[in-house]
Amino acid sequence: MGSDQTRPNGGRLRVSSASVGDCVTVSVEGAVDHLSSFQLAGALTSALTGDVQWIKVDLQQVEFCDCSGLNVLLGARERALEAGAGFRVTEPVSAVVARLFDMTGTGSLLLGQTAA
């Protein structure tokens, strides 16, 4: 599953998912903002279907991420835990994501081995 969205500012978001056993990895490339965060939200919601035990999110190729993207990640983490699945952002993350997590204090929630 993958999708692209071109925005007026030339930004582009690409989200893809891959399943191995009971783990789904969602990979994200480009800019996650208020115009594109719905794509990430949709992919993470889709990842929770079936017998998924883990959702991992790869943000190594993210060039920009604002609070819209952060809210999507935090909401997906909460839904995964409520469903009995684990959730984590895999490391390493891009420099902009690392800075966002550091500035907001959310790294410990999203980067750790979060299991239900």
From TrEMBL:
InterPro entries in the record: MlaB-like_STAS, STAS_dom, STAS_dom_sf
Record domain STAS: where: 13-116
Isomerase as UniProt keyword: no
Keyword NADP among UniProt keywords: no
GO molecular function: anti-sigma factor antagonist activity
Keywords: Plasmid
PROSITE patterns listed in its UniProt record: STAS (PS50801)
Xref: Pfam families: STAS_2
Annotated protein name in UniProt: STAS domain-containing protein
Taxon lineage: Bacteria, Bacillati, Actinomycetota, Actinomycetes, Kitasatosporales
